[in-house]
Design brief:
8-stranded mixed beta sheet, two-stranded antiparallel ribbon, alpha/beta, 173 residues
């Protein structure tokens, strides 16, 4: 099973402001460029996210991932009435094993930094697709919120978009 951490990041390495806001992405999202998001979204068959990301998504209005199963990691009880959302308190390894056993082939690790750290610590992330936004935030939440042993990645593909946005696709050897 491929577990893909697909995420936007500022040029100085942050996925959000310190308070979790991602409003700095708005001018880039409204540019008319989709950064191959639609093709990527169609290629995945499930999603995993942490509770903070889940709650942030709820704040955007309509659930953006209808008709795709989403697992939300949370150590606390999580109430949801949406049929595509499955709360879980499983460890990253246990959840990855279960999704693979259920036949999932490409799973999007939506985020955020704490959730990504849990999966990376167990070397479960197979691909990083990092869209680098040409903007300096100065501070915020990093790509992975943890101290990890250094890991070498292999660059599989790069894409440059018309507004100086870069997309880097790395795999773990």
């Amino acid at each position: 099973m491929q577990l893909i951490y697909y995420v936007a990041i500022s040029a100085d390495g942050f996925i959000s402001r310190p308070d979790g806001r991602v409003d700095w992405l708005d001018p880039f999202q409204s540019s008319g460029e989709d950064y191959d998001y639609a093709a990527f979204y169609e290629s995945v068959d499930a999603m995993i996210m942490g509770r903070i990301t889940y709650e942030q998504m709820l704040g955007f209005g309509t659930w953006p991932y209808a008709n795709k199963r989403s697992w939300v990691l949370s150590s606390n009880a999580l109430a949801t009435s949406h049929p595509d959302i499955a709360p879980t308190s499983e460890t990253p390894a246990a959840l990855a094993r279960r999704l693979a056993a259920q036949g999932h082939r490409r799973v999007w690790l939506v985020g955020g930094a704490i959730t990504a750290a849990g999966f990376e610590r167990e070397r479960l992330i197979t691909d990083y697709i990092v869209t680098v936004i040409p903007l300096l935030l100065g501070q915020g939440r990093p790509l992975i919120d943890s101290t990890l042993e250094p890991r070498r990645l292999t660059l599989a593909e790069t894409r440059r978009f018309s507004n100086n946005v870069l997309q880097l696709h790395y795999t773990q050897p």
